[in-house]
Amino acid sequence: NNKNQHPWHQTTQKGQIIFVDNPGIHKPLHNLNKRMMSFVYSALETSNLVNLLIDATLKFGHGDEFVLETLKNISTPIFLLINKVDIVKKEKILLLIDKYKDLLNFKEIIPISALKGTNLDILEDLTYDNLPEAQKIFSDDKISDQSQRFLLSEIVREKVLSHVKQELPFVTAVYMDKLEDEIKDSSPNALSGKKKQVQYISATIFVEKETHRRIVIGKHGRLIKTIGTQARQELEHI
């Protein structure tokens, strides 16, 4: 998957934020990686605000240095978001803040917990404060500019990676084979006349190796069943 930019938006009385999920910053070794990085550079320069999200539980390494060197070349304001503050001691968070302050001129440094919701309200307020005044790009009832098939495939892919992210690389892809609507009787008694719309979805999960396929299927097919169940539960809300 070339991990195209996926725009989503949040619209409130304060304004509208459009989120763009980009491929991770990395040294491109192959043509696919070079193409992914071209998306990254384009988005970094054309966005109004960049959020750099780091994991407070991980050690600072060469990859972090490369990311910061890349960000030094852009003029877009940057927020540093230090995640997982709910499981890391305050002293370590303060050391991280001091370290990153010396490495890059961040517009804001915000310790957060995506899991617990810590300081996400502050992040939202500061985001609105740093966006320019402009007309809405998305109407209130439109959550994305992506097709329904694409959104459905991304939900299935997210469920796969949530279970096997340590074992499986991010080259996993999902293709929607079938997406059909059908009107069926909502009651076992067909004479009741009540109808309901049923959506049939069939998807294929692509992985690189046979070992990856066995991981996704799981022992006696248990994992693929779990993935299917969780995906269906989320799809019902779309």
UniProtKB/TrEMBL annotation:
<dbReference type="Pfam" id="PF00009">
    <property type="entry name" value="GTP_EFTU"/>
</dbReference>
<dbReference type="GO" id="GO:0019843">
    <property type="term" value="F:rRNA binding"/>
</dbReference>
<dbReference type="GO" id="GO:0005525">
    <property type="term" value="F:GTP binding"/>
</dbReference>
<dbReference type="InterPro" id="IPR027417">
    <property type="entry name" value="P-loop_NTPase"/>
</dbReference>
<dbReference type="InterPro" id="IPR000795">
    <property type="entry name" value="T_Tr_GTP-bd_dom"/>
</dbReference>
<dbReference type="Pfam" id="PF07650">
    <property type="entry name" value="KH_2"/>
</dbReference>
<feature type="domain" description="Era-type G">
    <location>
        <begin position="1"/>
        <end position="133"/>
    </location>
</feature>
<dbReference type="GO" id="GO:0000028">
    <property type="term" value="P:ribosomal small subunit assembly"/>
</dbReference>
<dbReference type="GO" id="GO:0003924">
    <property type="term" value="F:GTPase activity"/>
</dbReference>
<keyword id="KW-0694">RNA-binding</keyword>
<dbReference type="InterPro" id="IPR015946">
    <property type="entry name" value="KH_dom-like_a/b"/>
</dbReference>
<dbReference type="GO" id="GO:0043024">
    <property type="term" value="F:ribosomal small subunit binding"/>
</dbReference>
<protein>
    <recommendedName>
        <fullName>Era-type G domain-containing protein</fullName>
    </recommendedName>
</protein>
<dbReference type="GO" id="GO:0005829">
    <property type="term" value="C:cytosol"/>
</dbReference>
<dbReference type="InterPro" id="IPR030388">
    <property type="entry name" value="G_ERA_dom"/>
</dbReference>
<dbReference type="InterPro" id="IPR004044">
    <property type="entry name" value="KH_dom_type_2"/>
</dbReference>
<dbReference type="InterPro" id="IPR005662">
    <property type="entry name" value="GTPase_Era-like"/>
</dbReference>
